[in-house]
Amino acid sequence: MNTFALVGKKLGHSFSRAWFTSKFEREGLSDYQYINLEVETPELIPDQIRKMQVIGFNVTIPYKTAILPYLATLSAEAEAVGAVNTVLVQDNQLHGFNTDVIGFESTLLPLLKPCHTEALILGTGGAAKAAAYVLKKLDIDYKMVSRNGDGDKVLNYRQLTMLHVRNAGIIINASPAGMFPDTGSRPDIPYEGVDKYHLLYDMVYNPPVTGFMEQGELYGARVINGYEMLVRQAEASWKIWTSPAQLVKKSTL
User: Fold this and answer.
1) Hey, which of 17, 32, 226, 241 would disulfide with 203, CB 3.0 to 4.6 Å?
2) Tens digit of pLDDT for each residue in 116-173?
3) pTM higher than the cut 0.90
């Protein structure tokens, strides 16, 4: 059996498992399976991967950066982002990649308008780092916002003003706020600064319409959830797992 996995801490609702299971069924890959692998601490990941004979896996909250010390190599993109969401197991070593970048960039580009020159990224985790990498690549100025921000490199939510929101044509929720089962929550920002020129991009996909998106629609903004991003990053992960030549692009840690 060819086993792939999603590695994280709490995986009650997994897009990846459902998507890959459906893919295997559609393509007649009866000797392939995709499992959820809950791990309490990152140092346990390598042993669990060996024990379950996993040959490729995705990484989710809270291990996209915590897994870095356990990887033999990083792709150039993953190294630049500082976070990994896809791992290839080869020759008993773990090789890290970041396909969040592909998923985010490919879904953001068609939505950009000339007024989208500044952005706010809500969150500072692995998904937020991928968003920051893409925005920098596209020459879009951005600020990151976090509950623990010190106001120097990262704003604190308490410091966020309506002017910050008004000036940021793109607002990206890269935090878990609003994700099932906590669907009643949303990022605490001054939504009254949003207007019809804004793009609100929520990386959360469940529920399909989040509180963050509802607030954006209320003020006339264009909104998008994270479903298509997840599909595209999953497709990119599959390509890496089935095309080991990708390792030619690696950089050694």
Assistant:
1) 226
2) 999 999 999 999 999 999 999 999 999 999 998 877 779 999 999 999 999 999 999 9
3) yes
Both tokens of residue 34?
A: 């995709």
Q: Give the closest residue to 101 by CA, choosing from 87, 122, 86.
A: 86
Q: Say how far apart CA 221 and CA 165 lie, in whole Å.
A: 12
247-248-251 Cα angle (round to 5): 80
64 part of the active site: yes
pLDDT digits (tens, 9 = 90+) for 155-165: 999 999 999 99
Query: Would you tell me how many other CB atoms lie within 10 Å of the CB of residue 158?
Result: 9
Tell me which amino acid residue 24 is.
F
Q: 46-104, pLDDT tens digit by residue?
A: 999 999 999 999 999 899 999 999 999 999 999 999 999 999 999 999 999 999 999 99
Task: Show the DSSP H helices in the chain as ranges.
Answer: 15-26, 45-51, 76-81, 100-108, 126-137, 162-167, 211-218, 227-242
For strands 54-59 and 73-75, give the pairing.
unpaired
Return phi, psi of residue 112, to 5°.
-75, 140
* Closest to 187 measured CA to CA, from 156, 166, 163, 218: 156
Residue of 9, 51, 64, 239 with catalytic role: 64
